[in-house]
Amino acid sequence: MKFKLVTTGILALCLGVGAVYAADAPQVVRQGLMKKIGGSMGALGAIAKGQKPYDAATVKTSLSTIAESAKDFPNHFPAGSETGNDTEAAPAIWQNTADFKAKAEKLSSDAQTILASMPTDQAGVGQAVQTLGAECGVCHQAYRLKR
């Protein structure tokens, strides 16, 4: 009986440690950052399309999130994280790291610039979405695996 209890405890501990490791894995971290950027772009897109009313707080939060996440994003591509955890990162990231980092920095910088001039209406948000969306598309073309 004690053997089963000890075995069950060890198994639970191992599963818990495995889950914590997976949550901290660079692939998981960068997927989380992409989800933040995607959610922010979605919020801006809804305003730009007139699906949601203009809301300065949403615009500010979304642009800030994009700027911060894009700036941090390149920090989560260490050697050895090319595969695993359903990553969609293309090998080109590790082959052309300088360009990859430059594209992320441009997205961050442009989001900060747009935030500094803060769009004040639906049309301004639409222009922001076009600018930032084009940058996302260029990076995804070069550095995201097509599935």
UniProtKB/TrEMBL annotation:
GO cellular component: periplasmic space
UniProt: heme c binding residues: C136, C139, H140
Record PTM text: Binds 1 heme group per subunit.
Signal sequence interval, chain numbering: 1-22
UniProt keyword annotations, A-Z: Electron transport, Heme, Iron, Metal-binding, Signal, Transport
GO biological process: electron transport chain
GO molecular function: electron transfer activity; heme binding; iron ion binding
Keyword Iron applies: yes
Gene3D superfamilies in the record: Cytochrome c/b562
Protein name in the entry: Cytochrome C556
Source species: Rhizobium straminoryzae
Lineage: Bacteria, Pseudomonadati, Pseudomonadota, Alphaproteobacteria, Hyphomicrobiales
